[in-house]
Amino acid sequence: MKKLLTAIAAVFLIYSCGSNSQKNQEPTSSEPEQVIDNHNAKSSLDYKGTYSGKIPTASGEGMTVTIELGDSAFVKKTEYIGKKDTFETKGKYTWNDQGNTITLEGDAKDSPNQYLVGENSLTQLDMSGNKIAGDMADLYILKKQ
After folding, report:
1. What whole-number distance in Å separates Cα of residue 124 and Cα of residue 112?
2. Whole-angstrom distance, CA of residue 107 vs CA of residue 76
3. Which of 78, 69, 57 lies closest to 121, judged by CA?
4. What domains does the chain contain, in order, with CATH numbers?
5. Rounded to whole angstroms, how far apart are CA atoms 20 and 25?
6. Strand 63-69 relative to strand 49-55: parallel, antiparallel, unpaired?
7. Closest of 126, 135, 115 to residue 52, by C-alpha
8. Distance between CA atoms of 129 and 117, rounded to whole angstroms?
9. 115 versus 25: which is more confidently predicted?
């Protein structure tokens, strides 16, 4: 009789421990859990530094563009290839709400002034702030020096 009572008590103890672990789990919801990702170029990348690249132009051989980004200021140097014309612009830059694109404030109004910030790169955007597409898209990327 003692063996029977001991066996029943052991089964009860095992059952109660197993049930308890299921009770402590969080209930599952039919709605997906929303994860807020605060990572963006502004907060996650080491974007400060000097970027350079050869950008195509409508006429001529293109231009070499160098942009130096500081804390909130920039220096942009543009040199037309085959000519000795070099232009320098200084000013401040601002970030868009998503933290992935900068706008060079004080840059020429008739030229693109928005750049998508990537890992060791700045990608020049068109006048409307869109990424340039097509066969020449890679030619609008400035690489970090």
Report:
1. 7
2. 8
3. 69
4. 45-144 (2.40.128.640)
5. 9
6. antiparallel
7. 115
8. 13
9. 115
Q: What is the pLDDT of residues 64-113, one digit of tens each?
A: 999 999 999 999 999 999 888 889 999 999 999 999 999 999 867 778 89
pLDDT of residue 84: 83
Identify the sign of the CA torsion 22, 26, 30, 36. negative
DSSP-derived secondary structure letter, 29:
-
How far is the CA of 10 from the CAs of 18, 20, 26, in angstroms?
Answer: 12, 15, 28
Statement: residue 49 has pLDDT above 60: yes
Contact 81, 59 (CB under 8 A): no
Q: What is the mean pLDDT of the chain?
A: 84
Residues of the chain with pLDDT > 70, as a percent, come to: 73
Alpha-carbon gap, residue 93 to 115, rounded angstroms: 10
Of 52, 120, 102, 116, nearest to 81 by C-alpha is 52
Q: What is the pLDDT of residue 111?
A: 83
